[in-house]
Structure formats: structure tokens, C-alpha cells
């Protein structure tokens, strides 16, 4: 499989997910990425992992229940305030933390209006993290090598399996 094929299939599958399955998927992926943010916080002593954890808790509370739009808007603002900017934190650790924030941000956005593209963005934050980790391990890795790397293929297949 190549990247354009993965993207086409993933977008199509995400668009067909129910709201409940979309939410479950986004929560699972976001939970997996949050430890990257905690590592970033420990290294850089910047940000606030509690905001991401509170965001995940809000998403969990929302399952099958009404979500206060004001509370969501306030949480999104808090999340933006603790999201690392690559101008200030351009290392790999900063990229992983950014991806964690992106996943959680789009999870919260999904709670507001259930747009499938938000779920797609959560999945891409995950695959981007795998991509960046492989690039960190081998700075000379080519796009072709990356597309055939077992870890990248596993990440793509996982996203497709979980959204099937």
C-alpha cells in the first residue's frame, strides 16, 4: 500500500463511521498519544498535561450525553494555550506533543458538530507520529522506504482496521 491509497481508503471509511464508533476511535487514539505530551512536558518544562487529561475526561463524559458548548469552547481555548508551536519547540519531542494536542483538539471539535474530517485528523495525527519517530531513528529514510517500513504499514493498517 502507498500513502495516497491509504489516505483514500481511510477518508472513505471514516466518513461512514457512526458517531459512537467515531468517538470511540478518536478517544482511543488520543489516549495513546497523550503520553507523548507528558514526555514533552518533562523535557521542556512547558505546557500542562492536565489540560489534555481534562479534555479526554470531558469527551468521556459526553458519550451518549449532551455536552455544554460553552464548556467545550473553554476547553478548546485551554488546549490551544498549551499546544507547542514548532517555532519554539521544533524538535521531534515537540512534534509528538503537537500531534497529541491535535488529536485531542479534533476529538473535542467532533463533540461539537460530528464532522468526519475531525476523526480523520485524529488518525493522521497518529500516523504522523509514527512517521516522525521513524524519521528520528533514521534521518536519511526516504519517502519510499518510509511507505514500506513495517511500523508505518502497521500504523496504516491499524487505522484502516479500526475504522472498517
Tell me about this structure.
This protein has 164 residues and is an all-alpha fold. 79% of the residues lie in helices and 0% in strands. It is built from 8 helices and no strands. The longest helix is centred in the first third of the chain and has 26 residues, at 19-44. It is flat and about 45 Å long.
Mean pLDDT: 96
Q: How would you sum up the global shape?
A: flat
**Beta-strand segment tally:** 0
- Largest sheet, if any? none
Instruction: Report, as a whole number of angstroms, the end-to-end distance.
Output: 16 Å
- The percentage of residues in β strands lies in under 5%
Structural class: mainly alpha
Q: Counting H and I runs of at least 4 residues, what is the number of helices? A: 8
Helicity level, as a percent range?
Answer: over 70%
Secondary structure: elements and pairs:
Layout: H1 3-16, H2 19-44, H3 49-62, H4 69-81, H5 92-113, H6 116-137, H7 143-148, H8 150-162
Helix pairs in contact: 1-6, 1-8, 2-3, 2-5, 2-6, 3-4, 3-5, 4-5, 5-6, 6-8
Descriptors for this entry?
mainly alpha; 164 residues; flat
Can you describe this structure in just a few lines?
By secondary structure, the chain is mainly alpha-helical. It has helices at residues 3-16, 19-44, 49-62, 69-81, 92-113, 116-137, 143-148, 150-162. Helix 1 (3-16) packs parallel to helix 8 and helix 4 packs antiparallel against helix 5.
Amino acid at each position: 500500500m502507498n500513502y495516497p491509497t491509504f489516505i483514500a481508503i481511510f477518508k472513505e471509511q471514516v466518513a461512514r463511521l457512526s458517531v459512537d464508533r467515531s468517538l470511540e476511535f478518536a478517544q482511543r487514539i488520543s489516549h495513546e498519544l497523550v503520553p507523548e505530551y507528558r514526555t514533552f512536558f518533562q523535557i521542556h518544562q512547558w505546557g500542562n498535561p492536565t489540560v489534555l487529561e481534562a479534555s479526554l475526561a470531558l469527551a468521556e463524559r459526553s458519550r451518549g450525553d449532551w455536552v455544554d458548548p460553552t464548556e467545550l469552547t473553554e476547553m478548546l481555548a485551554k488546549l490551544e494555550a498549551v499546544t507547542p508551536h514548532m517555532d519554539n519547540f521544533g524538535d521531534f519531542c515537540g512534534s509528538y506533543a503537537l500531534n497529541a494536542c491535535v488529536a485531542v483538539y479534533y476529538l473535542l471539535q467532533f463533540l461539537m458538530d460530528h464532522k468526519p474530517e475531525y476523526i480523520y485528523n485524529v488518525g493522521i495525527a497518529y500516523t504522523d507520529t509514527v512517521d516522525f519517530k521513524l524519521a528520528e531513528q533514521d534521518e536519511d529514510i526516504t519517502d519510499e522506504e518510509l511507505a514500506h517500513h513495517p511500523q508505518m504499514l502497521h500504523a496504516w493498517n491499524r487505522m484502516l482496521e479500526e475504522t472498517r
